[in-house]
Design goal:
By secondary structure, this protein is of the alpha+beta class. The protein has helices spanning about 30-45, 60-75, 80-95, 105-120, and strands at about 1-5, 10-20, 20-25. The termini are far apart.
Length: about 120
Amino acid sequence: MATIIQLPSGNWRVQVRRKQSYASETFLRHEDARKWATATERRIDLGEEPVKRAKVDPTTFADLVDLHMEDMCEAGKAPGRSKGFTLNRLKKTIGRLKHKDLTRERLIQFGRNGRGKARGR
């Protein structure tokens, strides 16, 4: 039987221990956690290995922005016009940067460039 507990963050943690197999995952919604637990138990009963959810390995800043927007929508809090505009602008201007190339100076420059355009300079 699966154990589903709510974490302090509000996410749901599922642990499946069955036939000397162990699998665990974290979900935003309880219903997703329950479905994954049932499917995982079924796989173990059939003698198959438990499958982890597909993890996205973000390589660029744009990937991180996309993941953030997806998470917001899944949580039922889609970004508003202002935040959506800012996130899309971030993706267009510095989205191609790799994590290691994203520095404090680049973010400051992004802010300064946007401030000048907003005032009509």
